[in-house]
């Protein structure tokens, strides 16, 4: 363990090293399609890393290999210095679609993780109630997912992910389906909770403002086949406070513009390709 500048201690085994990651798929027509080509970047223990890039550049494919759900064609992912060759231990996920079980109550959804890990039911229930309190959902324990708003469902998903105290948190556009205000509120809440647990985070988003506001490091990917175009360290101080307000800081605007200059070309190239123009 090492102490961090903001909140909880970070775990050295949460270091993520992605080197020369290449992924090829076989298309239905039997052709080889290269989705990723030599992707390399690192996420330091307890660091919040955002990945941005045009649609189809291989962001989700990269996450699949960090989690161990998929295998690289070439290259490697190492977590805590060990090569990932199965499902990575200590990883929690949040996706754009709610991964909540509709037939389980809010409490039931949140305590599932600890119960699967063998935590006695009583203890798991206490922890789940505590996490629901932390995400502002005390009093909603007996509701079912369909009885909640989109923002409330995200809070449940966040409690369900963080109750496991993961060393790595993988987030694939977790707030992509929310309205702008709810998204800003959820992002601020996520930062507060992340500071309490300090997992290493890989956060995929199409929203560059969101990436800069949340992250310590922003990785910009090229259009397909995806590779790393540039890596930006975000030197905005922590704790960041309100995600909505940070957007008015001169340094935020400067970083946002700098990264957009790099990203724009790739977005335009990907658009030209899908629109049938020349890349
Ligand atoms: N199992 C698969 N078989 C064939 N091609 C695949 C497979 N999975 C992904 N791809 C292709 O790999 C490319 C990268 O997909 P991926 O979903 O990783 O992109 P992305 O950057 O996450 O996209 P988006 O931003 O639109 O979510 C796409 O062209 C996709 O069609």
Automatic annotation (TrEMBL):
Domain ABC transporter: 16-248
Thylakoid keyword on record: no
A molecular function (GO) term: ATP hydrolysis activity
Annotated CDD domains: ABC_NrtD_SsuB_transporters
One Pfam family from the record: ABC_tran
Domain of life of the native organism: Bacteria
Keywords: ATP-binding, Nucleotide-binding, Transport
Ribonucleoprotein is among the record's keywords: no
Protein name: ATP-binding cassette domain-containing protein
